[in-house]
Amino acid sequence: MEERKAESPPAQPSLVRPYSLTSGRTSPAVELALEALIQVLPGTDDRARDLDNINATIVALCRESPSVAEIAARVGVPIGVARVLVADLVEAGHVRILATLKDDSSDAERRELIERVLSGLREL
What we know:
It comes from Rhodococcus ruber BKS 20-38. The chain is mainly α. The protein is built from six helices and two strands; from the N terminus they run αβααααβα.
């Protein structure tokens, strides 16, 4: 007799469509690179209580200064949605964008960024 392999049940689809998280917006109000690091601003914890679940989760993640790409991966949303949500939090004064590398960045700044990216990748 031929043995059948048990199939795992299909993953449950998300009940919330990504575009509904951004009210249909696809462009962030603030330019955000994938590698841009995001940091929570002082005093945000008190104001974050009024945020919805996904935005509160993003604010909590930003205590570790993750990149926009990391935020998208950890929250489980497409990168475009993460950009819009993070941009909204920037405009609301909950988080800020840390400076990214420029053409005139020093070797030390470049090394620090590479080390942070590697550290973040290891944590995933």
